[in-house]
Structures are given as structure tokens and as C-alpha cells.
């Protein structure tokens, strides 16, 4: 209806929320998955944010990343032939090695998220398998693939 404010934030507003360390929800079309994913800046991930994802969300806690970053960290794809309905490009799960215990706690998962975002992290800093699932974004972002993974990386 004309003149009715949108319940959705603009892209610029979402970027600013993420920049401030807040969580946004990215929704896709009704004819795709018809769902929303929590998105936050991994470099600012806290145990409290992980707890929110675990209690208010469902499914895996993932870390969308560029192909270049995954290659630098030597994180391979989870399977050679992806047959999932949406083609979600899951990689081998990881945990950060230093300063964590089992990898499953909110503290450990937030540390892993921050490590994945840290340009100083090296392949040897990560253990495999782990409890955080990096996702490989399609090159070209949402213009190439209209997925939550690409939206997260683009934002």
C-alpha cells in the first residue's frame, strides 16, 4: 500500500547495523527458501551473539566467506558433488585451536568466528573437523547467486 512504511531496513541501514556490531536478519524470496538468516560481523562476534543464534535460530551456525579466504585458510569443501536443493556450499567445519576447549561452547564458537575473520589467522590455527561451518560464497555475490551466504558476504 502506498505510503505505508516498509518493515524492512534498507541495505544502507543493514550495513550500519552490522558495522555497529548488531545482528540483522536477511530474508529471501517466498519462492526460494522463504526464511531469514541472522547476519553479524564475525570480527565482532561475542558469546552473547552465539547464544542468541542458538536460542532464537535453528540449524548450523555458519560463517559465510569468500572463496579466496577459504583457499588461504586451506578449508576444503565438505563434499565434491553438492546435491543439496539450494546448493549451499558448505565446507569442512573448523574450530580455532588457541584459547578454546571443545569448540562447542558459545565462547569457543565466537572465538572461531573472530579467527575466521582475522587476516592473521593461518591454516595451522584451525582444527578440523570443528563446530563452525564456513560457507563458500559464489564469486559475484548476490548478482550471481541470490543466497543468504552471498548476501552476508556482500553486506
Give a nutshell description of this structure.
The protein has 155 residues and is an alpha+beta fold.
Keywords:
single chain, 155 residues, alpha+beta, DHBP synthase, 3-stranded mixed β-sheet, 5 strands
Assembly type = single chain
Structural class: alpha+beta
Q: Bin the helical content.
A: 25-40%
Estimate the mean pLDDT confidence.
91
The Cα radius of gyration reads 16 Å
Q: Order of SSEs, N→C?
A: HEEHEHEHEH
Largest sheet: 3 strands, mixed
Count of runs of 4 or more consecutive helical residues: 5
Number of strands: 5
The unreliable regions are: none
- Total domain units: 1
Spatial order of strands in the largest sheet? 3-5-4
Rounded to the nearest angstrom, the distance between the terminal CA atoms is 28 Å
CATH architecture title: Alpha-Beta Complex
* Overall 3D shape: globular
What features would you describe in this structure?
The chain has 155 residues and is of the alpha+beta class. Helices cover 28% and strands 17% of the residues. A hairpin with an 8-residue loop joins β1 and β2 (36-39). It is globular, with a radius of gyration of 16 Å.
Question: What are the SSEs and their pairings?
Answer:
Elements: H1 11-19, E1 24-27, E2 36-39, H2 47-56, E3 62-65, H3 67-72, E4 94-96, H4 106-117, E5 126-136, H5 148-154
Parallel strand pairs: 3-5
Antiparallel strand pairs: 1-2, 4-5
Helix pairs in contact: 2-4
Amino acid at each position: 500500500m502506498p505510503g505505508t512504511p516498509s518493515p524492512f531496513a534498507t541495505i544502507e541501514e543493514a550495513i550500519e547495523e552490522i558495522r555497529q556490531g548488531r545482528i540483522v536478519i536477511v530474508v529471501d524470496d517466498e519462492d526460494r527458501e522463504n526464511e531469514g538468516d541472522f547476519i553479524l560481523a564475525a570480527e565482532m562476534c561475542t558469546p552473547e551473539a552465539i547464544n542468541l543464534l542458538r536460542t532464537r535460530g535453528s540449524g548450523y551456525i555458519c560463517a559465510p566467506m569468500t572463496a579466496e579466504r577459504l583457499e588461504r585458510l586451506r578449508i576444503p569443501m565438505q563434499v565434491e558433488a553438492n546435491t543439496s536443493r539450494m546448493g549451499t556450499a558448505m565446507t569442512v567445519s573448523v574450530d580455532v585451536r588457541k584459547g578454546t576447549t571443545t569448540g562447542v561452547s558459545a565462547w569457543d564458537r565466537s572465538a572461531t568466528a573472530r579467527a575466521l575473520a582475522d587476516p592473521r589467522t593461518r591454516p595451522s590455527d584451525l582444527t578440523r573437523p570443528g563446530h563452525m561451518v564456513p560457507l563458500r560464497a559464489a564469486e559475484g555475490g548476490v548478482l550471481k547467486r541470490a543466497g543468504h551466504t552471498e548476501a552476508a558476504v556482500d553486506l
